[in-house]
Amino acid sequence: MARVNWTVAPERPDSPVALALWRAYYTEVSDRWYRLHEGRSTDPDELEREIAAGTGAELAPPRGVLLVARYAGEPAGTAGVRLTDPATAELKRVFLRGELRGRGGARILVTAAEDRARALGARRMVLDTRHDLVEARALYTRLGYVETEPHNDEPYAEHWFSKPLTPVPAPGTGD
């Protein structure tokens, strides 16, 4: 997979592209949960309520950022970062459209999110995920995240991860 097919750039959480990707993300994870636990898809009214409630405002500057990945110019996925305190950033909404998985985009998105977290001053990244999102848990482990004690009380969180964000040396410093 050639990295040149991927680009990642900040996007307003309320932009049409970000909203379409949020809808795809929420639909997938919600349907996955309901199919596993209740044998059905998400109720359409509930889906619309939850999508509308997830404004992404916490992923806007100055304390956050939403990144959109594009593959060959087409919107492909997202990763959000928000500061929870001056030294800690939380990784949110990591998502790639299903047909683009397996092409290196998730690693590129998470790495870009880590870089943005460093730029915001964070020295540590945390995240939470569900037990049934085994692919996400495997990705985070491959990228150096380790499972930790809970850092929040999110209702669907079942696994919590953390990773130190080692500062990147400035070019030409020799460090």
Map the helices and strands:
Blueprint: E1 6-10, H1 16-38, H2 44-53, E2 64-71, E3 74-85, E4 88-96, H3 105-119, E5 124-129, H4 134-142, E6 146-148, E7 159-164
Parallel strand pairs: 4-5
Antiparallel strand pairs: 1-2, 2-3, 3-4, 5-7, 6-7
Q: Please tell me how large the radius of gyration is.
A: 16 Å
Q: Spell out the helices and strands N to C.
A: EHHEEEHEHEE
By DSSP (H or I, 4+ residues per run), the number of helices equals: 4
The side-by-side strand order for the widest beta sheet comes to 1-2-3-4-5-7-6
Mean pLDDT score: 91
CATH fold group of the domain at 3-12 and 59-164? Aminopeptidase
Q: Largest sheet at a glance?
A: 7 strands, mixed
Give the N-terminus to C-terminus distance in angstroms.
30 Å
By secondary-structure content and strand pairing, the structural class works out as alpha+beta
The CATH superfamily name of the domain at 3-12 and 59-164 is Gcn5-related N-acetyltransferase (GNAT)
| Beta strand % | 25-35%
Characterization of the model:
This protein is α+β, with helices and mostly antiparallel strands. It has a domain at 3-12 and 59-164: Gcn5-related N-acetyltransferase (GNAT) (Aminopeptidase, 3-Layer(aba) Sandwich), CATH 3.40.630. Helix content is 33%, strand content 28%. The chain has 4 helices and 7 strands. The protein has helices at residues 16-38, 44-53, 105-119, 134-142; strands at 6-10, 64-71, 74-85, 88-96, 124-129, 146-148, 159-164. It has a 7-stranded mixed beta sheet with strand order 1-2-3-4-5-7-6, sandwiched between helices. β4 (88-96), α3 (105-119) and β5 (124-129) form a beta-alpha-beta unit. The longest helix has 23 residues, at 16-38. It is globular and about 55 Å long. It starts with 5 loop residues before the first strand and ends in an 11-residue tail after the last strand.
